[in-house]
Amino acid sequence: MLFTGGTSGIGLGLALRFAEAGNTVIVAGRRKELLDRIVAEHPGISALQLDVADPASIAAAYETVRRDHPQLDVLVTMAGIMQPEDLRDPGHLAVAEATVTTNLLGPIRTVNAFLPLLLSQDDATIATVSSGLAFVPLPATPTYNATKAAIHSWTESLRVQLAGSSVQVVELVPPAVRTDLMPGHADDESAMPLEEYLTETFNILQSQPDVREVLVDRVRFLRFAEVEGRYDDVLALLSGRAS
Ligand SMILES: NC(=O)c1ccc[n+]([C@@H]2O[C@H](COP(=O)([O-])OP(=O)(O)OC[C@H]3O[C@@H](n4cnc5c(N)ncnc54)[C@H](OP(=O)(O)O)[C@@H]3O)[C@@H](O)[C@H]2O)c1
Description:
By secondary structure, the protein is α/β, with parallel strands linked by helices. Helices cover about 45% and strands about 10% of the residues. A seven-stranded parallel β-sheet has the order 3-2-1-4-5-6-7, with helices on both faces. The chain is globular and about 55 Å long. About 40% of the residues are buried. NADP nicotinamide-adenine-dinucleotide phosphate binds near residues 30, 50, 131 and 181.
C-alpha cells in the first residue's frame, strides 16, 4: 500500500493501522525528517520522498516503487493542503494555484503514473481523499473546497472508467478531523478526534470491501446536506452566520 501524504495526520494514522494489520506499507511525503523517523520507529514500513506538486518527483517515485515494490496493489492519494484565502486580496492567487496543484493535479498526476502498475495486478484499489467540504463549502477556504468537490467528481468518473477492470475505486470523505492540516486544527474541539476517525474508517474499510464512499457518521451532516434540504442552513453555519 502506498500512501501519498503519509508523513502525518490521517495518512500516517491509516498507514500504521494497515501496517499493524499485516500489510506492506510505503509512506510518502516531502518532509525527509518525518520519513526517517517513521522508518526508525516502525521497522517494516518503507518511506519515499515525494512532492505531488512536482511531476518529475511523481515520475521518480513511480520508478522506485515499480523497481522495489512491483506487487503494489493499493494507492491512497492522501496528500493535501488547506489554507484560508481572502478573495479580495490579490495575494490569494498564490494559495489558489498551490492548492489546485497539490490537491487536484497531485492526485490526477499520481493516479496517471501508477495506474498501469495497478491495472497489471489481479486485484487493486485506488483510494482518493475528498472532504465533507466537497459537498458544502467552508467560505474561508474557497479553493480548498473546490479542489475537494473536483476530486469527488473525478473519482466518480474514474470508478466508471475502471469498471470491469481489476482496480476498485474508493473515496474517503473525512469530516473535520484533529490534525495539523491548518494551524490550530489539531486543538479544535469541534473536529473529530484523529484516533476516533481512524478507528471508524478502518472498520468501514475492513467490513465493507466494496464500499464506494467511506462516510463516518460525523460527515453525513455535510455529505447529505443538499439531498436532505439542509444546504442553506449548513452553508450559513459554515459562513459564521447561522440562523
Ligand atoms: N483533517 C481534516 O479535517 C480533513 C478533512 C477532510 C479531508 N482531509 C484531507 O485529508 C488529507 C490528509 O490531511 P490531514 O488532515 O491528515 O493533514 P496533515 O497532517 O497536514 O497531512 C497532510 C499530508 O499531505 C502531505 N503533503 C502535503 N503537500 C504535499 C506535497 N506537495 N507532496 C507530497 N505530500 C504532501 C503532507 O506531507 P509533507 O508535508 O511531508 O509533504 C502530509 O503527510 C488531505 O487531503 C486533507 O485535505 C482532512
